[in-house]
Amino acid sequence: MSDQRKIYLEDIPLDEAWRRFTEALAATGLWRPFPGEDVPVVSALGRVTAAPVWARISSPHYHAAAMDGYAVRAADTIGATETAPLRLALGPQAVYVDTGDPLPPWANAVIPIEHVQPGPDTIEIMAPVPPWRNVRPMGEDMVATELVLPANHTLVPVDLGAIAGCGHTHVQVRRRPRVAVIPTGTELVPPGVPLRPGDIIEYNSLVLAAQVESWGGQATRWPIIPDDYDRLRAAVQEAVATHDLVLINAGSSAGSEDFTARVVADLGQLLVHGVAVRPGHPVILGMICSRPVIGVPGYPVSAALTGEIFVEPLLARWLGRPPQARPTVQATLTRKVLSPLGDDEYLRVT
Amino acid sequence: MSDQRKIYLEDIPLDEAWRRFTEALAATGLWRPFPGEDVPVVSALGRVTAAPVWARISSPHYHAAAMDGYAVRAADTIGATETAPLRLALGPQAVYVDTGDPLPPWANAVIPIEHVQPGPDTIEIMAPVPPWRNVRPMGEDMVATELVLPANHTLVPVDLGAIAGCGHTHVQVRRRPRVAVIPTGTELVPPGVPLRPGDIIEYNSLVLAAQVESWGGQATRWPIIPDDYDRLRAAVQEAVATHDLVLINAGSSAGSEDFTARVVADLGQLLVHGVAVRPGHPVILGMICSRPVIGVPGYPVSAALTGEIFVEPLLARWLGRPPQARPTVQATLTRKVLSPLGDDEYLRVT
Fold first, then answer.
1. Touching check for B249 and chain A: CB below 8 Å?
2. pLDDT tens digit string along A85-137?
3. H or E stretch covering B338
4. FRET pair for A2, CA 20 to 30 Å: which of A35, A103, B73, B201?
5. CB contact under 8 A, A156 and B214
């Protein structure tokens, strides 16, 4: 028993593993952004646009007063001076408007209230006003058919205002990838149960699910599956039928990891079993029924790192946004680090 | 009519406005973090801890094998050499363990499988093993009662694992501030209705609600209230009774802003009417029934900026986290900027 437990395919370099995985995805048409779905603007915060947003209406959608005052015809004001004021008839020649009000169809300028002597039937003005002075002409901010937002843009609060303001109630955004998280291992117990020696609290699925949510996916957590080939196989079959990506989180016992690889190989195609990254090398990559499946190592640091290395870039691809840039910082090593030749080693820094 | 519309209290500097507001909040005991509420760890992503999290259990919570091999008493192995191997009886002196398995109570070391010659009833060893070699002793990662996370910490995915792993199913986090967003203005129409000249699409409430959600609050959007003193007053009374903060978003018409100030003054205390920031100066700050109320200007850029200047720091205070640091970047002005003396001016940069 103990002999067959530790049989890994040889660890392969990270870029080779990633190449095999993306090639298999591309072969099934899955290495590209998801199509869009129409969601109400009010629910679109944080979603990624699947198509450019074009203005449906101009803004303003009418000639609007930019000051409180009187809407006039500019031509009617020619010749007014302080010494020879002009009178304009209220109604046909001058109409009071508040800021934002539409101008009457015949008007093309606004004289501010403070430059006017109002009378009962007329206003008196002391200076001419050029056409379009103190007016926000139709389309000043945005003209119908103009580009408001590009595709593949993650929506922040002010974007919702821009989309609604240019006449839309809905917006085309990428469907959120559905990710199944299956914890497996006989030694695993859910948080909160009394612990016996050998029990391991299952919390990797909490971390993986939270990572998926924070990267724009929707996670479904499975109950713990013990080290039982048939039960794991059944869970994986159900998960691939209803999800875009399946994460199988092997527990720390040697048996769990083996079951995962065998289930992937039997149900589909085992592409990679072991990646030369530390921590995290016993990563499994495969395809089952045209769905990607990732066997995530049980060691918690490896599990979280596998999420960052494999799950985040895949979700980013499906959502049509670039993968998260990793910030680069300078750090000082406090001990000598001897990484195994050919491995990419990830170290935690403070 | 047009005369009384534009009566503002004098614009006051931003820091003076903020001082009046926080003093009024402090006087009613509202200028401090909210108390905590117990939420399941699975729902705690992005929430802020209201108390330190202490480990309930040690991790590992038992002496665990760190290698696949045989659990032994170190004392039984003394004297073993390649030329004079020792035999240990399977059962009383040596027990097979996988990585992660608990040691028998009498064992204190593990000999890796590859250093052992197994027989039917005994194992043969060629070297002694010191106590605790290849063992993860109880509490190696974390000892019960140790600090896992401090208070006022925003939970990221791996934190959920740490909390569950140290024995908790729930975590004390700050209650999410409830924020009412009331759009008001007779000229406002909801997105999607056919537009007539003078109509303004109401989308500031979408932006303000999304800002509130992205800063950790829970927003409730009211339907549009027309410029009607009694209806606005009734809406504000209902909102202050059920929310922690009320935002009244005056439309762009002159009337809307006036109603807001009057309702605040009549129902409670008008602290500030006009802040010397551009854009955004017609901000209203007040208290009604021990609840803060902010009159947000109607101009969309001013509305979003008012959210950033006044709402975000208040929510941060209630959640117990520092206000968002504004990133500092160097930019080149492409035109001369003449800010009114005494005003803080905010410019958009590319």
1. no
2. 999 999 999 999 988 889 999 999 999 999 999 999 999 999 999 999 999 99
3. none
4. B73
5. yes
